[in-house]
Amino acid sequence: MINGIEHIGIAVSDLEKATKKFEKIFEQKPYKEELVNTQNVRTVFFNIGDSNTKIELIGSTNPVSPIAKYLQNNKEGIHHIALNVADIHKEMNRLKSLGIRLLNELPNKGADNKLICFLHPKDTNGVLIEICQEII
Ligand code: CO
Questions:
Q1: CA of 98 relative to ligand 1 center, distance in Å
Q2: At 6, is the secondary structure helix, strand, or coil?
Q3: Which of 23, 71, 90, 108 is deepest in the core (most CB within 10 A)?
């Protein structure tokens, strides 16, 4: 079951600058900054008011990072939408049975204490969707 939008991921070329800008826009500091070595990215998470939906700024830490590659072909902007799920394995199987390709066969450890899996954007009308489950 999909439980809502967990966060929206924004790819940025200068994470420090972007963080400062969004601190002003949201009128608050990020609640978390995290290096995700497996993905070669650094992430910054903001809460927005009382909303449960967060904003994730994503910058690359080296040229082999998927975000670095993304920014070679795209402008900065919305990179993915992350959906909260209760049981990621079950959702992966359900989506596979619908013919939606997954970018990884097993859930990966993502930022912010989550298991994550990306869906192939060609199977979701060009939108990169992440499903994520809180690690308890
Ligand atoms: Co994300």
A1: 23
A2: strand
A3: 71
